[in-house]
């Protein structure tokens, strides 16, 4: 949870894909679905590795559901266009704001068996990929807000955190 420093550090490459990583992936998928959220990065559950899970199917129509995506050691190969849409984050509850992102992305990663793959995405999937890859680089969506909105966030969130105690 914000402002935990584990969210601020760059995560390390996954070198070993074994049964313990497999269990971590299953746990992350369960945590994401229970939240409920559409994406979760390993450092959000305190594990500083380049691993994230994404499942946007709950926000899609039956005709065009993307399958669950596991991305290990992901790299953004290309970014195209620009959109500004509302975003939230499981690590920053009760806060959402419009964030400027690329409209289309191309990502290279390894799947849960270690096999490399490339994916091109737009819409919500492009947004989720960028959001999760940001997490793995120690970035949060609030870092992408204008200085003015960032200040409003900091003040509101501080107030919210205090009220909750
Ligand atoms: Ni997030």
Explain what the structure shows:
The chain is α+β, with helices and mostly antiparallel strands and 165 residues long. The protein has one domain (5-164): Peptide Deformylase, CATH 3.90.45. It has helices at 19-34, 123-136, 147-164; strands at residues 39-41, 51-54, 69-80, 83-89, 92-101, 104-110, 116-122. The longest helix is centred in the last third of the chain and has 18 residues, at 147-164. The protein binds nickel (II) ion. Nickel (II) ion is lined by residues 89-91, 131, 135.
Q: Helical proportion?
A: 25-40%
Number of strands: 7
Q: Might you state the CATH topology name?
A: Peptide Deformylase
Report the principal-axis shape. Answer: globular
CATH class: Alpha Beta
Q: Biggest β-sheet: count, sense, barrel?
A: 5 strands, antiparallel
Q: What is the strand content? A: 25-35%
Distance between the terminal alpha carbons, to the nearest Å?
15 Å
Series of secondary-structure elements, N-terminal to C-terminal = HEEEEEEEHH
Within CATH, the superfamily carries the name Peptide deformylase
Number of self-contained structural domains: 1
> What spatial order of strands do you see in the largest sheet?
1-2-3-6-7
Query: How many helix segments?
Result: 3
Estimated radius of gyration: 16 Å
Q: Structural class of the secondary structure composition? A: alpha+beta
